[in-house]
Amino acid sequence: MAQIKNIGVFTSGGDAPGMNAAIRAVVRTALYYDLQVTGIRRGYEGMINGEMIPMDRKSVGNIIQRGGTILKTARSDAFKTPEGRKKAYDHLVEHKIDALIAIGGDGTFTGAKVFGKEYDIPMVGLPCTIDNDLQGTDFTIGYDTAINTVIDAVDKIRDTAESHDRLFIVEVMGRDSGLIALRTGIAAGAEAIIIPETKTDIMALFDRLDRGRKDKSSKIVMVAEAEEAGGAFEIGRQVKEKYPNYDTRISILGHIQRGGRPSCMDRVLASRVGVAAVEALLAGHRNEMVGVVHNEISYTPFESAIKHHVDINPNFLKIVEILSL
Ligand code: ATP
């Protein structure tokens, strides 16, 4: 096994709070072990275009608390082609990068898996997505901040809902996963939660609303964006049709869920897995995601990390049912 001298680090896919904390941890750990570290801008797209910058202690100063990513991120269609990946590899060779750390979500690790089969370069990944939809880590970097952003917003919506006696249908992000909706629904005291992991039964929602306290003035229904019945607008339409007397409003929280200062949990998680990722490369790991399971560092092959679906805890659904009376 060739000795690693220069680690390339990049962020890829959707941005998530804590990406900067992860970059900082990787750069400082590499320097701690007397390695060089090169930042690759704009994820795989920047790798293809040769956007490489040397990183030092100072280049990651004062970023642990910042949202977004100083390396920028991108979605790259070119990397899905063999020609694109060949260009990317040629740039790595040109810049003498002999190992990679990818910070991203399932798409990023799908790309990493493909790249790892074609080219002989050690690569490990850090789970960083607000969706929390990866196997092999209890939480992904960015999820904790995103769910706190959601409950902050829903608490405010609840003030309006309460003042005007309104029903709000609130749509949150999560791609194919209902994990954000489920957890924030519990935390914000939602009357009902609609997620893609369970079959949407609009009659069950009506039943839930009928059974709810008649004197309760505000109601919140949390809906995950990938929900099969068509998301908040379609559910809102059906609710309005069934209950013309309810003052029903729809709120799509959108991109505010991706931004902002990372929470303490996300900064600590990013720091832990960032340090562990560099150490994993030095210990010979490759094609694995470095996560935390039951408070211990764990290594999961990319192949398994991206296996959908992360299971929903059925107790959580029961909790909503009990507590929304
Ligand atoms: P998030 O879940 O937060 O959006 P992500 O990492 O899943 O993050 P994607 O946009 O799905 O984000 O993937 C990031 C990039 O990974 C893609 O733009 C593409 O360049 C690369 N990628 C995804 N799938 C493949 C694939 N099958 N082959 C090669 N590259 C891929």
Question: Could you explain how this protein is built, in words?
Answer:
It is a single chain. The chain is built from eleven helices and eleven strands. Strand 4, helix 4 (106-118) and strand 5 (123-127) form a beta-alpha-beta unit. The strands form two sheets. A seven-stranded mixed sheet has the order 3-2-1-4-5-10-11, with helices on both faces. A four-stranded parallel sheet has the order 7-8-6-9, with helices on both faces. The model has no long low-confidence stretch (mean pLDDT 93). The chain is elongated and about 70 Å long. With 325 residues, it is α/β, with parallel strands linked by helices. The protein has helices spanning 19-32, 43-49, 82-94, 106-118, 143-164, 179-187, 202-211, 231-242, 264-282, 302-305, 314-323, and strands spanning 6-11, 36-40, 52-54, 99-104, 123-127, 166-172, 192-194, 219-224, 247-252, 288-293, 296-301. Helix content is 41%, strand content 18%. The protein starts with 5 loop residues before the first strand and ends with a helix. It has two domains: 6-142 and 262-305, Rossmann fold (3-Layer(aba) Sandwich); 146-258, Rossmann fold. Bound molecules: adenosine-5'-triphosphate. Residues 12-14, 16, 44, 75-76, 79-80, 104-108, 110-111, 114, 129, 131, 175 line the site of adenosine-5'-triphosphate (ATP).
Total beta-strand segments: 11
Assess the beta-strand content as a share of residues: 15-25%
Question: Distance N terminus to C terminus?
Answer: 61 Å
Helix content: 40-55%
Indicate the CATH architecture of the largest domain.
3-Layer(aba) Sandwich
For the record, what CATH class of the largest domain applies? Alpha Beta
Low-confidence stretches are none
Please, what is the average pLDDT? 93
Please name the CATH topology of the largest domain.
Rossmann fold
